[in-house]
Automatic annotation (TrEMBL):
The keyword Iron does not apply. This is LacI family transcriptional regulator. Residues 4-58 form the HTH lacI-type domain. Transmembrane segments: none annotated.
Length: 331
């Protein structure tokens, strides 16, 4: 059987080919009655639009890139965030009728390849997943002129719209919880300070303690489990009397728990521990980890919606999502 044509659909519906074309391409100016007649003819004939021809008319590829920049070494293997973000964003794009192209940009060569692909119009827009504040990719991609949004606030403002969770508010809630429990010597394990999330969480920790007249006790980690263990060992050496630790993510908090066990410190009796993110491993830590829940799936979905809004309306504002204190055994 021959494939039904646009002309056949127009003949069956009793309208012009241009009317059918406007319906197929989703133009909002078509009257509802015409749209209904055309779609009935499409269903009856089993018409499938020619995607390549439609793209020539609309100047759209109907494809969105998810670009994952290179995170710190060791973080991807431990942290489920990247897979969760890609999965949630892909599902949201597919439900909107978009194809998904996953691009990795962890080297100068791959960044150049991604830039050329976007500049050539291979995709209609992109979602950037980048954690490193020194990453050159956001500035590179902003030059392409394509609609691009960032999963996470960028270190350089104004390059593109973004969606992030309330890092400052979440860290404040964590330290306030420790203070409310009567903890007096509260340390923190910070993430790498070229990342905006780590900067905001450290700033909130310091501001909250300053308001009570307490001093900051800081060790620098890199968001990995091993850095949490090493930083906790350093903190115990620097201040053996500390009685609480706020780690800037759950992986570092879990590493800190291991060091505390090895040092013979009971959690939470001797030292209370709070993390950030509420990854699945937090629930199964020993003891179960008190943490700040950041809505990672919701953040990915909201980032996708922000991009779709940018494609439709040409503008979009940054979004900050709320966090939540989840109290478990460690604090």
């Amino acid at each position: 059987m021959r494939r039904p044509t646009l002309h056949a659909v127009a003949a069956r519906a009793g309208v012009s080919k241009s009317s059918v074309s406007r319906v197929i391409n989703g133009e909002p100016t078509v009257a509802p009655a015409i749209r209904e007649i055309v779609m009935a003819a499409v269903a009856e004939l089993g018409y499938v639009p020619n995607g390549a021809a439609r793209n020539l008319v609309t100047q759209r590829t109907n494809t969105i890139a998810i670009i994952v920049s290179d995170p710190p070494a060791g973080l991807v293997s431990d942290d489920p965030m990247f897979a969760m973000v890609v999965r949630a964003a892909s599902r949201e794009l597919e439900s909107a009728g978009k194809q998904v192209s996953l691009m990795l940009a962890g080297s100068d060569e791959s960044r150049l390849r991604v830039e050329k692909s976007l500049a050539a119009g291979d995709v209609d827009g992109a979602i950037l997943v980048s954690m490193d504040g020194a990453d050159p990719l956001p500035a590179i991609l902003s030059r392409t002129g394509l609609p691009i949004v960032s999963h996470g606030r960028l270190a350089t403002p104004g390059l593109m719209p973004w969606v992030d969770n309330d890092n400052h508010g979440g860290a404040t809630a964590a330290v306030q919880h420790l203070l409310a429990q009567g903890r007096r010597r509260i340390a923190t394990i910070s993430g790498p300070l070229d990342m905006t999330a780590a900067q905001e969480r450290l700033t909130a920790y310091r501001e909250t303690l300053k308001d009570t007249g307490r001093r900051s006790i800081v060790a620098l980690g890199d968001f990995t489990r091993i850095s949490g263990a090493d930083s906790m060992r350093q903190l115990l050496e620097d201040d053996p009397d500390l009685d609480a630790v706020f780690a800037a993510n759950d992986l570092m908090a879990i590493g800190a728990l291991r060091t505390l066990r090895q040092a013979g410190r009971r959690v939470p009796d001797d030292v209370a521990v709070i993390g950030f993110d509420d990854i699945e491993a937090a629930l199964y830590a020993a003891p179960a980890l008190t943490t700040i829940r950041s809505p990672m799936t919701a953040q990915a979905v909201q980032t996708t919606q922000l991009l779709l809004n940018l494609l439709t309306h040409g503008s979009a504002d940054p979004v900050v999502l709320p966090t939540e204190l989840i109290i478990r055994e460690s604090a």
